[in-house]
Design a protein that fits this description.
mainly alpha; 228 residues
């Protein structure tokens, strides 16, 4: 599927074409009641993420190497207290969020019943362990972002699409690294400015594609910070 994702890009699809394709096919699937075939989902996810447009995955530390970068439990008492606290705090936050991540998110709708998407089932616990590794690897690869609440949901969905954790990791990287850096800035003014620009882009797209909805939102004087 990696080769097929690259072939899609070679046919000249740009970002706008991707968005139009996604919107059109999503609408068709909703109207017809037919979901995307499971075998196409990895191709579409890779294609929609940045790295899916490349002929090969991004360079850098491998997934397995990133998992080895953490402080082993046996060495926690001997390492620098600051490093120890940061490592433990990040790990605690990931575990806390995964504990309240719905089990069905780890399986697409047609597989939940078949593979035991019920909370507490062995299948769900296995997926949550994979998500823990995935999020730790991402936080070590991209320390400027680290871990943010909400990434647990993204990891769960990706692990429901990709069987191999390294593949889910590469697509997670592609999705998050496409976002403007201001979205995860620790500077409140930078964050607010970035969000305002993105909100203007989204509302501009809504006005063009769904003018009645845009007019309705304008009449309501709705604060876009409530949902964007």
């Amino acid at each position: 599927w990696l080769e097929e994702a690259s072939l899609l890009e070679e046919r000249g699809a740009c970002i706008n074409d991707r968005c139009k394709f996604a919107a059109t096919t999503r609408h068709s699937a909703t109207v017809s009641g037919v979901a995307y075939p499971a075998e196409l989902r990895p191709i579409l996810w890779a294609w929609m993420s940045t790295w899916g447009s490349a002929s090969s995955p991004p360079h850098g530390a491998t997934y397995e190497a990133l998992l080895q970068e953490g402080i082993p439990s046996s060495a926690l008492l001997e390492c620098d207290p600051v490093d120890q606290e940061e490592e433990q705090a990040l790990h605690r936050q990931i575990l806390c969020d995964l504990a309240r991540t719905p089990g069905e998110l780890f399986f697409h709708e047609h597989a939940s019943a078949q593979f035991g998407g019920a909370e507490g089932s062995p299948d769900v616990e296995h997926k949550k362990l994979a998500a823990e590794r995935l999020l730790l690897a991402f936080s070590r690869h991209t320390p400027a972002i680290g871990y943010c609440q909400g990434l647990n949901f993204v990891a769960a969905v990706l692990l429901g699409v990709f069987e191999a954790e390294p593949d889910a990791f590469l697509v997670l990287r592609g999705l998050i690294e496409r976002l403007p850096s201001g979205l995860y800035s620790s500077n409140p003014e930078c964050l607010a400015h970035c969000r305002m620009n993105l909100q203007e882009q989204v509302m501009g797209a809504v006005a063009e594609e769904l003018p009645q909805l845009a007019a309705h939102l304008l009449d309501l004087d709705l604060d876009t910070n409530l949902f964007l």
